[in-house]
Q: What sequence folds into this?
């Protein structure tokens, strides 16, 4: 790790969850794959590119994720207490941070704060605000 104690940035794009699996078969083999493979690969790649800062945290870290999701025309609540699940959104971003080299491994995360919001005046575009802090 370099001298950075904290790195924060915004990743634009509609966040994609990771976690739901489906059984796939072909060529005499059976395996599990993500239900939303195409969208998930694109989102994780976007996160990885944003996370490539020339810094790698290979020690305990705290991570804060603030997801901004598109607001439906008629939301049921003022906050997005609906799918996608917050844990599945988190899983995709943490794996993207590893893919981009910012985290040596997502097992280094010892503290995690995650929130979901609808897009609004303060953050007009969907995406996620990421902050990684040395512990």
A:
């Amino acid at each position: 790790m370099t001298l950075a104690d904290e790195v924060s940035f915004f990743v634009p794009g509609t966040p994609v969850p990771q976690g739901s699996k489906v059984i796939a078969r072909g060529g005499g083999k059976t395996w599990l794959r993500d239900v939303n493979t195409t969208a998930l690969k694109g989102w994780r790649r976007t996160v990885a590119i944003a996370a490539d800062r020339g810094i790698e945290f290979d020690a305990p870290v705290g991570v804060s994720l603030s997801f901004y999701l598109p607001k439906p025309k008629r939301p049921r609540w003022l906050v997005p207490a609906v799918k996608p699940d917050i844990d599945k959104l988190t899983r995709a971003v943490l794996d993207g941070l590893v893919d981009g080299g910012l985290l040596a491994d997502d097992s280094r995360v010892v503290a995690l704060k995650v929130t979901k919001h609808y897009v609004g005046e303060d953050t007009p575009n969907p995406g996620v605000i990421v902050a990684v802090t040395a512990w």
Remarks:
- The longest strand covers residues 109-118.
- The chain is about 20% helix and 35% strand.
- The domain at 6-134 is CATH 3.30.1330.70 (60s Ribosomal Protein L30; Chain: A;).
